[in-house]
Amino acid sequence: MLVFMLDEKFTPTRTKEMAQVHPFGGRRGGQKTASGAAGQQDEVKVFSLQRGVWTAPSEEVFLRHNFSRDAGATESLTVCYRIRFERYVDLSTHLSYSITEENYDILGFYSTEEQLLTWVLGQSQITDLPKDAWPVFPETWHHLCHVLGQTSYKVYWQGELYYTKAMEAGWAMPLNGTLVVGQEQDLLGGGFDLTQILMGDMTQLSVWDRALTAAEVGRIAACQEVGRGNVLSSDVTELEVVGPVKQQWEKIGTFCRSSSHYFLMLPEMRSITASVSLCNIFNATVATPSSDSDNQNLLDEMLPFSDVCFPSSTWKTWIGISDEHEEDVWRDLSTQEPVEFLRFGALFPHGGRIYNCACLMVDGFWIDTDCTNTNRRCTACQVQYSDFLRLRGLCFDSEHQTRFRSDGYMGGRPFFRGFYDMLVTWNAQQKEWKLHSVAENRTLASLSTVSLKSYPLGRHTWVTHEELCGRPPGSGIVLSLSPCNSQYHFMCRSGNCIAHNKRCNLRYDCLDGSDEANCDMILVGKEYQRQIPPAGPSNSALYLVPSLTLTRIASVDDINMAITLEFDVVLTWTDNRVTLKHLSESGGILTSAGAAKMWTPRYQFTNLEGGQVKLLEESVVATTANNATFPDYNSEDMDITYPGSENKLSIIQHYTAKITCDLRFLAYPFDIQVCGIDIHLPSTYGAYVSFSTAEGKMSYTGQEDLALYTVKSARIGKHSTRTAISFEFALHRRPGVAILSTFLPSILLLLVSWATLFVRFSDLNVRAIMSLTTLLVLYTLFANQTNALPKTSEVKLIDIWFFYIIFLLFINIIFHIFVAEEDALTGTAPKNLIRIAPVESKNPGPPLLRRRILPASGGTGTPSFRSPLSFSISCSGSPCFF
User: 683-717 burial by CB neighbour count: b if 16+ within 10 A, else e?
Assistant: First the structure.
């Protein structure tokens, strides 16, 4: 047997209560028979191999049975046993059976981490189940039956069919070999390996030369039958015991009555609120007994600490119930469900609004008390056997090795035992927590605590005593011990667990606020060069996906051919040199400090009006959260990371700018102007960075109908290239304004001019005034319209329209002139027409003014003229001069 001599500082200390921990049927209690004495009919023999806190793995501890060499073979076989693990090794060996030096693996049953492994007739059988298909935990009993028929192999776990596989008929199992319990044979009866042993207990080992039925297996698993085999029974057959193997007789019912939980005392005074929080970090709840036996187990766990748990009081430890929400309705603090089992003393509970919590007294009864923070008692946590803690920050070979559980006490406080050979204990003299390797007999690291009430839970910096995971002695190593599962949780510095989506969400979800610390979303290596652009896939050119959102068109200056815009430019790319953290389902926004660590694309606008551009806001965001990488089981940093190669980064820049636009007015006022925002990449990028125009897009989110235009057709320009891209949009002039302000007035003026044709020929002056006035008004309208447009040499549609209308008015005036001249030459001037000429003129010449004189009222043939001066004249056919 391999024995390690422990130095003085490594000597284990056991408190009084540790000696009471029973190795069988739970942590305490159970009826037992002295070792070596014959058991009763309802008792079975339990073998304990390599148990103990400080027990180092050995090749010289096992059970062995040599079958008769004259025994024959069987064509059916059943092997059943009940097994419990205290610790694990790389390959926990249940039993192995060999018949010759060559056939040393004819039959073998093993387990590794959370997977059951079997070898039958030299071949591995359970090969198609996942690695976590057999979740077993320390200090829990498991009943296994392996049933081999001619055509099938079946495995029963806890009485239920767990696995089945067809077998080829015609096999036979020789029964003249050597059976070894607790060691894996690489030779007949030997060839053992330290990493292939059993550190735990085995009982009810039986072998039958027939296939048991499912009903028979179920009765044995349910403790209804002892189930002793006709070929071998560990209760009857004399097994060769090698090494310090402890043997104990146990009642068969013990294995089916074992509790699913145990109690753990934390012998420091604290409030009920602090107790609830601390038990949560232990992956437990405040103790809430559910039966008299459960209450007795809690009392047994508490009594050894009665001298340190409020010595002057009989109220020792908290019970995890409260009636604060509803008087006399006691609820479990962890589930808020009403509890059925209560064990208050005869005079209790007091009731009332103050006494809403409960404590366990030294006589086993409960008493109600207040829940204030000044009321402090010891804490008893209720721990499920299936629950455990995880130690992160070391260099374990598998996740299973990171698992620890609280088990017993040293130095008056709980210690933490790894599922394998690690151990964390409290050194009362040095007031330090120690990390040990039991297999190597080494103290690896220590932790000095600020408070003597604290535990090594959460994240702390330990000091190495020897070389540890590449760190020299005396250096610091950050370790974390908590129940947090990195697949679902982020660990607060204190050891509490929160969901990953609460990390860096701008809310304090950890009591210590550590969830909002170190929220930088970007990680870059030491060799990262910010000025060098990242490469694309397979070291190709990096393609930037451009996007522009035009949010507002502030003004359109037709005269200067310029447009004032507000828009967002978005360039998207990937960087395989960075790692992202703290992303939500839709990504996340990088801080300015984070964005400053990495390369971001640069570009320039090439059609600005006088360089008028202003950057209003800039942000760098991760737009996806793909391929989440959960922390390695050895990493104490429990943040989820995302590879930069799988997640897109975008730089979003919000601008206001005045750009030039080559406006074309040929079709004015029915013109469509196509304008664009032109962006070029710097020439220094060369062929390493390009635009992906095929994936680019543009959109307009502002008001579609402007004062004079309607915005349509926002798109990527057809002539965009890999280094230059144009984001185009079309401005359709709204014709309604032009119709009301230009065409309709000009048509009305034309109609007015045409209306003069219906005035009497004798009223030539009226015709002339109206025609000339319409012409002048139309020209003024034309001049105003021309001044509203830029000076260009091209002939516009509006010019043609006005030319056409003016031409019609001109024709109308010419018509009036020719009609008047025709009247003068032919003498066909109308009667009652007065010709007015200067008095000095002997020849009045052409008529300058013609005014019809209406006959005077009541007279005949005598024309009269009325004016504001109210005078009248009479003419007798000859011209009148006045």
Answer: eebeeebbbbbeebebebeeeeebeebebeebbbb
